[in-house]
Each structure stands twice: as C-alpha cells, then as structure tokens.
Specification:
The chain contains 13 helices and 21 strands. By secondary structure, the protein is α+β, with helices and mostly antiparallel strands. It is globular.
C-alpha cells in the first residue's frame, strides 16, 4: 500500500481550514481503501477522504486518518450503450472533462471550477447554473463507496436505491466514495453571450432572462448599480472560441491579474473599494463565443477568497438580492468581490440544496485575509429569512436543528447515516454540527 504514517497537516485551498491528522494514506485501490478503514476502526480513529481542498468548511478535516485520493484516478469504463462513464473518485474534473472531450462526450452541466476531484465536488453539492440541467451530483447514475465496516457498497436507482437517494451528496458521512458513474451525452457546442447590464434591469427582467436561456447567471458588483451577465445556450456551431489575445485579456489579465491587484489594494485601503468598483465594473465589455461545454462553463480562478452561498426558492432570489444590496449600501462594509447569482431545477437528492424545489443561489465572497464575518453574518440573516439552504462546502453557521426544518428529507439522511456508520467512523466536528451526533 502506498501511504505515509505519522501525523501530517492538511490545509484547504483558501487556507482558512487546517487539520492535523494522526496519519495519512494514499491507497491505490478500493481494497486498500477498505483496509485503511478497517485499520482505523482497530485503532479507534476516525477517517476522512480529502480532495483538492476547495471546500471552505471543515467537511474533510480530521484528527484521525486522512485519505488522499491521488492514486485513485482515471476512467474505469465508458459505456456507449448506456451513455455513462465510470471514474475513480480522485480524478480531477479537469482531467475528466478533457478525457471525455477526446472521446466525443461531455457532462450536461458543470460548475465554473475544474480543480476539484469528482468525489469532492459531488459530495458537497457543487453546481453550475441551469434552467433544466442540474448539479454535477444530479448527473450521477451510480456510486461505489466503502462503508464503516470496510465493506464495498454499490448503489444506483435499482441497487440499494435508498442509499443512492442520499449518497450522491453524502458529505463524506456515509462512507469513502471510491468511484462514480455519470450520465454523459455526445459533445455539443455552447454559445456564451457575456454582457454588462444595470442591476435594476437584471432584477426587473430576471424571470424572463431565466426562462429564455438554458444557463443564465450574473455578477453584481457591490457599491455599484452594475452587473455582468452570462447566457449559455446550445448552438449548431461552428465553434468560435475567444481569440487568444482577447481570452488572455479578459480571463487572465482582467479577471485574475488586475483583479488580484484591486483586491490587494482594497485589503490595505478599504476606503478605495467603492470608487475602484465603479471603474472596474465597467471594464469588462460584451463578448460572444462558441465552444465545447467545459470550455464555456468553467473559468480560471487564481485569486483566493472565502465564500458563503445560499440556495433560495427561485421566486425569492430577487427580493433577497435587493435586500443584500440595500444592506451593503447603508452599511460601512467595503466589498471588493462581486456577488454571484445562479439557478438550478429541483432534484431528488436528499441533501441537495435544490432538493424538491426550483432554486436560485446567491454567493458572496471576500478576498483572502480580509475580515468577512460581519458581511457574511448580515447576508446569512437575509438568506435564512427565506428558508435558505447553505452550500455544504461554503461558510455558514447553520446546524442540524435548522437543516431539519429546511430539508424535508433530512431525517431520511440521518437515519441512513445511523445505519451505515453507527460508530461515527466518518464523523468530524463539522458533521456533528450539521447532522447532529
């Protein structure tokens, strides 16, 4: 078995969570994962698998055994008859997307970050935006996981369906995911239309913009009345990706390099943020391009931040966003990061933020190293007034009592956890807070 004994320190991408594990391991097979779980039980230790650390919560933190999935990567099988792909849990989304494209295949929808592992992304409910197509987890057709007694469990709509209903977004509480099967489709083209738009127009026309586009999202720049919108729709082609120079200017220089400088200035001189925001929110011009899905859905994210995101009933999102804007406008807060708004159709996953209801998401960010608590607390108060459900991998203060109220199937999930992990082999402080003991 490939692994390492002795304590080690794990740190997430944003640097706001660290954990010191008793030991860590990098198993190279499902059998080795099972052996690590059994060994942890013998030693009286908890065990957690980590991905690339793109969660802002301590969902993957442990003081027991830390399992790194670096050697559990690659595609196991492409089934063209069933139109599915089975992939090892530690495979980064960027490698999966590229491999599928080479095979003429694609996921239907995805988030805007490709660095995550497939297990990490799905276990915390990563999503993109879509009128009809849902989160990455909603595209899962089967999950393989090692449970607390070291046994291997495969679940799907036909096999162990009660586990499948929960394990697609399992928070790491039900077992160690070792492989995932996704539904795929023949690769297609998307045309992206990015366009600046006034906040008041976006708010007034939101329902129309949502209804007319397969994928609609927008960013509002705090301290301004300006937004940047993005509409993605399927296209007959031909492919017309952004020119190399224009792509570098927009995606690297403006959205990463210059934005990094602006955020750094705002951290040391917060008073400059409103004036800079008014200028920078007008800097991005309209553009239209056509490419394969993952090249349209995803963007490079090099500026580090912390984030909180809440899912609301879709009909409540404009009212909630207006409340956020009013709160920022009347407060002494200085916010350099734009606020992101996306949508998702209802799905049937027990702890999906879109479980049983058509949803829209409001995400707020703060540059790494900038005090965020006052801003996030004020936003969270607005979100919970609308029965908001926080993203499992992003900062929030909610607990099991709250989730029992906003998730109709919360008790179904916790009962399954009691059955699969009665000794809480996969527990940590975060799971005790959000799921209960």
């Amino acid at each position: 078995m490939s692994g390492a004994n002795g304590s080690s320190t794990w740190r997430n991408w944003a640097g706001n969570v660290t954990a010191r594990a008793a030991r860590e391991a990098s198993p190279a097979s499902v059998a080795e994962v099972a052996a690590e779980v059994r060994r942890a039980a013998e030693d009286g230790l908890t065990v957690k698998a980590v991905g690339t650390g793109h969660s802002f919560t301590s969902a993957a933190a442990t003081d027991g055994v830390l399992i790194r999935p670096d050697l559990l990567t690659g595609i196991r099988e492409i089934d063209r008859a069933a139109m599915t792909v089975t992939v090892e849990a530690g495979t980064p989304l960027k490698r999966l997307n590229a491999a599928l494209a080479r095979e003429g295949l694609s996921l239907t929808n995805m988030g805007d970050i490709m660095e995550q592992t497939v297990a990490g992304a799905t276990s915390t409910g990563t999503h993109g935006t879509g009128r009809d197509s849902a989160s990455i987890a909603a595209q899962i057709t089967a999950v393989e996981l090692v449970t607390a007694d070291g046994s291997l469990l495969t679940c799907s709509a036909k096999e162990n369906p009660e586990v499948f209903a929960a394990a697609r977004i399992g928070l790491g509480a039900l077992g160690i995911v070792t492989a995932i099967t996704f539904a795929v489709e023949p690769v297609f083209l998307l045309t992206a239309r990015e366009e600046p738009m006034a906040f008041d127009r976006v708010a007034a026309d939101f329902d129309e913009l949502f209804a007319e586009n397969e994928h609609f999202e927008f960013y509002w720049f705090p301290h301004t009345g300006n937004c940047n919108t993005k509409r993605n729709n399927r296209s007959a082609g031909p492919a017309a990706p952004p020119g190399r120079v224009r792509a570098w200017i927009d995606d690297e220089f403006m959205s990463n390099g210059l934005f990094q400088a602006v955020c750094s200035l705002g951290r040391v001189a917060p008073a400059t943020i409103p004036a800079v925001a008014k200028v920078s929110s007008r800097a991005l011009s309209a553009r239209t391009y056509t490419d394969i899905p993952y090249k349209v859905f995803t963007s490079p994210r090099r500026v580090r931040f912390v984030e909180m995101e809440y899912a609301l009933p879709r009909e409540a999102v404009v009212e909630a966003l207006r409340a956020v804007k009013a709160m920022v406008d009347r407060s002494p807060l200085r916010v350099s990061f734009p606020v992101e708004v996306r949508t998702a159709p209802a799905d049937d996953i027990a702890l999906s933020t879109a479980s049983g209801r058509e949803s829209a998401y409001i995400a707020v960010h703060m540059y790494k190293g900038t005090p965020h608590q006052a801003y996030f607390t004020a936003v969270e108060r607005i979100m919970t007034e609308h029965a908001g459900r926080p993203h499992w991998g992003k900062l929030h203060t909610r607990d099991a009592a709250y989730f029992a109220e906003v998730y109709p199937r919360f008790g179904e999930f916790t009962a399954l956890r009691d059955r699969l992990d009665p000794e809480r082999r996969f527990a940590n402080a975060y799971l005790r807070r959000v799921l209960g003991d």
